[in-house]
Structure to design on (178 residues):
């Protein structure tokens, strides 16, 4: 067993840029192929942030100037920026139909932060819901509600719709939402 003093002396000098990810984690590098504001391909594998639903590509919101913008592209751009700026590390938490669901964290200064939580609290992603309409991870729904109340990110625009509502309409035979 390593002594605590030795462990501290070895880790204090490490910065996120030089420290290797903990065992079981992998780096989410900026050169992956982003599919959406919550999913990507890397090395032939499909990954998705657990508990997160990005705005759907092809859905629109109206910005303050009255222009229609692609909501999914906004989520994707913020996700890409977080990846490039914070160098996340991720660990698989579930597997389903060829998709590895992962939890990622970033280190900003001395703080280790949940990437999904950052996306949701900044208003550029949403808590994903199960088929019953319940969040997969309740704390993300709480963070989402706070972002909505503060009208941050996409929530500042009156016509932004939660993607779970749109996906539910599609599943119920409502076709492609406008």
């Amino acid at each position: 067993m390593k002594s605590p003093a030795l462990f501290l002396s070895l880790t204090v000098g490490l910065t996120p840029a030089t420290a290797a990810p903990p065992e079981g984690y992998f780096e989410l590098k900026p050169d992956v192929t982003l599919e959406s504001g919550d999913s990507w391909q890397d090395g032939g594998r499909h990954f998705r942030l657990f508990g997160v639903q990005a705005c759907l590509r092809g859905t629109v919101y109206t910005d303050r100037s009255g222009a229609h913008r692609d909501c999914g592209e906004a989520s994707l751009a913020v996700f890409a920026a977080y990846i490039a700026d914070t160098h996340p590390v991720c660990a698989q938490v579930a597997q389903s139909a060829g998709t590895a669901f992962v939890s990622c964290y970033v280190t900003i200064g001395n703080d280790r932060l949940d990437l999904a939580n950052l996306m949701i609290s900044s208003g550029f992603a949403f808590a994903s819901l199960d088929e019953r309409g319940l969040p997969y991870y309740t704390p993300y729904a709480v963070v989402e509600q706070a972002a909505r109340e503060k009208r941050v990110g996409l929530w500042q625009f009156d016509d932004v719709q939660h993607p779970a509502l749109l996906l539910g309409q599609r599943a119920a035979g409502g076709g492609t939402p406008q």
Remarks:
- The helical segments are 4-12, 71-86, 115-121, 138-150, 163-171.
- The two ends are 60 Å apart (CA to CA).
